[in-house]
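Model: Ready when you are.
Researcher: Fold this.
Model:
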Amino acid sequence: MEDKAGNLWFGTTKEGVYRYDGRSFTQFTMKNGLNSDTVLSIMEDGAGNVWFGTADGLSRYDGKTISRIPLVVPHTGYLQPSGSSIDTPPAKNMVWSMMRDRNGQLWFGTTDGVYRYDGTSFDRFLDDARIVNKDDLHLRMVDCMIEDAGGNIWFASGMLPGMEGIIRYDPATGIMTRFKPGGEGWIRRMVFDGKGHLWIGTRHRGAWRYDGHTFMQEKDGLGCPQIMDRAGNIWFGGSENKDGYSSDNGIWRFDGRSYTNFTTKDGLGNYGTWCMLQDKAGRVWVGTRNVGLYRYDGNRFIGLSE
């Protein structure tokens, strides 16, 4: 994630979070106030606070201090997946995804379900009586959330106890609609392109594109779509091997007509892509499984991990 000041933030597994200011990396861990040293998601709010979704709930950095932010739901305490309210939070409520919508409201996808924060208090999304939930969806383990041009919110349901596919929420009607491209319930990433088409990465059935009417499966070898760059290209990781972390397919870039493949010959390692971003200077950063961080300067990928 790139913040307003141009700093880049990178979450890790068991090493906390790193901030890159263009010159050097600074590490933040539990010693600095993080709930956990496994950081799964990062987001900046409208006030410039940086939020960290960790393996043990939410942390927030105000520029000076990192604080634990309890996911407290007013009057009802913490709502368990069973629907029963209790006074203590779920143990190790992992925060897999975060999103800031057009109105400035913050959304959090957790093991326990989706929560919202309006700047004052949290609520559990599915407790909203206006929601039409005909499929009795639980929205646990949401890996990704994204807002479309019409203000609809899309949820990508992750591994069990998720596996609910793609869910579209229409705030105007309250209706939630579920899709399972190719019958797949485990959705990892979603990206909108310049035409408003939704690109989708699944765990077991490759990459798909939704044009508003039909789901179309894309070419073999593609992993999850990660970003649309400023030129309108869609970037993908390669397909996962059975071990769950390596990939033989490198990275793919789609320009609307054809795919370009980047591999170890271009400086990449032989591991799967976990996340990507494009910074303000136009460089593409790639976070991978087990072998760290790469940066693409337009010609070659450079490894930046020790």
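Researcher: Now this one.
Model:
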Amino acid sequence: MILWVRGNHSDKISTEQDIESGQKASPSIGDASYENASQDQIKSNEDELQTSIYTLGAGTSSDLIGVGVFTHVYNLGEGRVRKVPASDPDNLDLAIKSIRREGDIYEHLGDHPRVIKCLAKGDLFVDLEFAPHGHIEDYLKSHQDTSDNCRIGFAQEIIEAVVFIHSKGIVHSDLAARQFLVDGALHVQLSDFGFSSFGDGDVLGFENSPHHLPRDIDGDMPSTVQSDLFALGSTLYEVITGKPPYEGKSDDAIAQLYSNGSFPNVTGIVCGHIIMGCWQGSFMSAAEVLEDFLVAF
């Protein structure tokens, strides 16, 4: 999850090649493993990592545009943004693991029109193509007059993105409108794979409560295709209605409603039957969701 900073306000939304930057080579993630290290070695490694992270991020650009659980995002200009680990020493191992995983997933996915383009990656950074309209949640808040036809177009491209990543064995584990960026031509591109897995259940985080399928997150497969499809339903609900499911209710209340099989009323809204199908587990794959969507629209 990333907190995207826009001017003087912010909105919640909770990207192998080395960049030729002339920077000193960064320590590898192995250097951040402290299990058998002395306290002096730990402090030395932490200081070196913090310096490298600063150099790659704030030392390169003062334009901080996003703050996440594990990452900070800087606008480098010329159509490029950079994600680096958040420099919180309590979570430094996880932050570095998240950045490396995200870069590896972008490399695995390759170029695709429904995924934000990765321009470069390293042990401590991922460079992504800049999306001038930000994420779709923010875009719809500032364009409340967006037509149903435009929202339907967004919805189709969101589903297409999930179809693609699932076809490549990726479980996102944090699907929401805030994870989909809007490019200059108003096309949608999925981003933020720091929590994701290659389908083996090893995830680093989970969806927020309005997008979270109630499940045993401590089990062998805490995030699956089915949990992504549930979150996809909530994401489509956001795009069509302009608000998340059960807006204003507490996390505990939402979790209880979902556990009881109680979902927001979608009668009469565009894509309502598809949204409900995602929530109720009626689809076995994102490809089935897309098939039903294309029949309807």
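Researcher: Key takeaway?
Model: The mean pLDDT is 85.
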